[in-house]
Amino acid sequence: QVQLVESGGGLVQAGGSLRLSCAASGRTFRRNVMGWFRQVPGKEREFVAAISWSGGRTYYADSVKGRGTISRDNVKNTLYLQMNSLKPEDTAVYYCAAQGLERGNVDGNSSLYDYWGQGTQVTVSS
Hints:
Elements: E1 3-7, E2 10-13, E3 18-25, E4 34-39, E5 46-51, E6 58-60, E7 68-73, E8 78-83, E9 92-99, E10 113-116, E11 120-125
Parallel strand pairs: 2-11
Antiparallel strand pairs: 1-3, 3-8, 4-5, 4-9, 5-6, 7-8, 9-10, 9-11
């Protein structure tokens, strides 16, 4: 069974940092584009960042550019998102996702992602 499990969320003060992790099990995602999305209740899921299978290409939403860093460790089959200078508007449930091998677009379109985790809550207090 393919699983993506996020961790690292929590409550942090504005200006603080968090590092989210996403551990994959059931199969390897070493050759898959992966990404992070976030969602606030009542709103659509929002793209945060994406990374190519090698880590050589990354793509960020304007809202996190300069504050977020996506990375991956293909040996550990784990995806990361480092978020700095957090703002209250970063409060959301954060999801990691992976594209199928046949895709390969480092893109923010959520319909391109075939595998999803259950999410981890990030709350930023002002």
